């Protein structure tokens, strides 16, 4: 790759047998891939760069080690440098402004997964708590291993989840009652329940099989027209948050430009000629 993707807390590599696919791995297995501030800042940087990399068309996100995709927020690290304990002598309005800015920065880093122009597939295993849910609902497709343990854990540490779960999870599963159940109780739920409610779209017997399935899906997506794939993700995300008429109007405006691509004729001709199409980088 032309770009340098060296990061302290993440591995980013490009499988030789999966052209145009990037594999991002959370790399803090000794701490169950728990996040602290430097990690979410790196996550934002990685996905911002992958979004604009013309050599990337699909992304897989996994966690290192066998125990956890991520156990969520590193509570010990958070307690040692808590945003709540800084600036305690300021007046409440100024302290609130400081906290709000910090939360917004954290939210933006996780939202970089959703904002990424390339589809993101998350392959989860083991403990997938708290921030794991925030990250995964910002992704496009969620897969998991049979041993996974999910939980929206924030009420157990005295706060309402504030990095995306409460805003995105109801739209992912389309079931407010179930979301309130897991968010208010912080109970652990497994792969079969996650599949039943539509939180994940596939369950596999092991972490290795889950990652392999994610890479296979990413390779299939990467074989498609990058213009069409980018437009599909953009329009689906827009339509999720707007009315049907708004979505139709936006689709018309988007495709008035996108339909002029050479990818359309290339795809149609390859279908007629029964060959695999090739597409230029985007």
Automatic annotation (TrEMBL):
GO cellular component: mitochondrion; peroxisome
UniProt keyword Ribonucleoprotein present: no
Listed GO biological process terms: fatty acid metabolic process
Pathway, per record: Lipid metabolism; fatty acid beta-oxidation
Protein localization: Peroxisome
One Gene Ontology term of the molecular function aspect: delta(3,5)-delta(2,4)-dienoyl-CoA isomerase activity
Broad class of the protein's primary localization: other
Record keywords: Acetylation, Fatty acid metabolism, Isomerase, Lipid metabolism, Peroxisome
Taxonomic superkingdom: Eukaryota
Family: Belongs to the enoyl-CoA hydratase/isomerase family.
Name of the protein: Delta(3-5)-Delta(2-4)-dienoyl-CoA isomerase
Species whose genome carries this gene: Penicillium angulare
């Amino acid at each position: 790759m032309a770009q340098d993707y060296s990061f302290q807390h993440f591995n980013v590599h490009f499988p030789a047998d999966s052209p145009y696919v990037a594999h991002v791995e959370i790399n803090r297995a000794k701490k169950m891939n728990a996040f602290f501030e430097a990690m979410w800042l790196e996550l934002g940087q990685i996905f911002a760069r992958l979004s604009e990399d013309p050599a990337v068309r699909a992304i897989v996100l996994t966690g290192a080690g066998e125990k956890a995709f991520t156990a969520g927020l590193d509570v010990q690290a958070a307690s040692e440098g808590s945003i709540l304990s800084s600036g305690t002598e300021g007046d409440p309005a100024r302290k609130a402004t400081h906290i709000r800015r910090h939360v917004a920065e954290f939210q933006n880093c996780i939202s970089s997964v959703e904002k990424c122009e390339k589809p993101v597939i998350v392959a989860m295993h083991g403990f997938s708590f708290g921030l794991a849910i925030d990250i995964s609902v910002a992704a496009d497709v969620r897969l998991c291993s049979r041993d996974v343990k999910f939980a929206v854990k924030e009420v157990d540490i005295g706060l309402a989840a504030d990095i995306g779960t409460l805003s995105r999870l109801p739209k992912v599963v389309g079931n407010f009652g179930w979301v309130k159940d897991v968010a208010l109780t912080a109970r652990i739920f497994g792969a079969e329940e996650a599949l039943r409610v539509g939180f994940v779209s596939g369950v596999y017997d092991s972490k290795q099989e889950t990652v392999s399935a994610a890479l296979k899906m990413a390779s299939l997506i990467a074989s498609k027209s990058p213009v069409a794939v980018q437009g599909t993700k953009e329009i689906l995300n827009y339509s999720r948050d707007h009315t049907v008429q708004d979505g139709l109007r936006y689709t018309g405006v988007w495709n008035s430009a996108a339909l002029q691509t050479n990818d359309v004729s290339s795809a149609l001709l390859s279908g007629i000629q029964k060959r695999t199409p090739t597409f230029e980088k985007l």
